[in-house]
Amino acid sequence: MTDPASPREDKVPRTARGERTLRALLSAAAEEFGEKGFHDGSISGITRRAGCALGSFYTYFDSKDDIFRALVNDMSGQVRDYVSPRIAQAGNGIEAERIGLLSFLEFARAHKEIYRIIDEAEFVDQAAYRAHYENTATRMAARLKKAAQQGDVRADVEEVHAWAIMGMNVFLGLRYGVWDDSRPAQEIADIANALIEKGIGKPA
Amino acid sequence: MTDPASPREDKVPRTARGERTLRALLSAAAEEFGEKGFHDGSISGITRRAGCALGSFYTYFDSKDDIFRALVNDMSGQVRDYVSPRIAQAGNGIEAERIGLLSFLEFARAHKEIYRIIDEAEFVDQAAYRAHYENTATRMAARLKKAAQQGDVRADVEEVHAWAIMGMNVFLGLRYGVWDDSRPAQEIADIANALIEKGIGKPA
């Protein structure tokens, strides 16, 4: 499977400098679309924020749609790359979900534009929108099944549990990450994790 | 508190016929925005679908933004009016949440445009978007607290549980209601409800 976050082969940066330019364009796009939304955001706004020429933009992207799709896939990958190594430190399958939510809350608080960007993909690039949630749910379902094999989680855990827990995390992140971050992230993660532990944890 | 779903006082229909026209315009708006989205949807598209004159539109709405806001509030109210009386039949607080999800899945399957419309409010009318979820969570938190008083649910149930369960329902509705409705709604509701029952039900 090709990674949809990567630019096409002829547009992959060949140098460290090219890599930095591509990264600057994606960060600028996150700001531009995060503030203005897709419709009002513009390529010139992105290059201005990135401090680079229009030609550099077209070295890596074909259009506004193209960089938006790349941005959604990039943010989806950023969440995964922030959360996954933290989850890997967990002592058991239930603790893994607590750390998963806690680190997602941290990420959402530090990148409040993420909801606006990924949610707008529902209208701008439905495939990227579905891919983000389907990939997240697939990773979570695999994690839960592994936890079931290790005896941390009930044996009948399945895809529905993954979508349920992902939905929980998304709305807790919106409410207690983006809209109002006054309660400690740890507290929110503990309350939700107690629900999950009792809900799908293996009875002692 | 005024109901934001209602038109302003000077725009309230005074006759049954007026009421029917308003209803026809809102249904047409659901089709128009559900198919085309807010940006590509148009007032003329709405009046054409509703089979009414442009003048009738302006009898009830000031602008495309105005009918979009009314539509979001109307759909939010429609979900509530479909789900609430069904929940009221439940024998206990856990059963209430099972019926809540089951009837929400039924509603989403029958009105697949609901996600597209309410989610687009995040970009078109942030206040209507937040109001939809805040009102839903407030109703759910009140229901859970009442269930705690009746001894069906743990005494420490709070707002975080309501947002968690609402998020679960929203994502299960998207995945198993709108994107793919091949699994029985009953089955999805049973799996999620077992998680909730163990997660927040009062230990026997």
From TrEMBL, chains A, B:
DNA-binding span(s): 42-61
Keyword 4Fe-4S found: no
Coiled coil region boundaries: none
Protein name: AcrR family transcriptional regulator
Domain HTH tetR-type: 19-79
Keywords per UniProt: DNA-binding
An example Gene Ontology molecular-function term: DNA binding
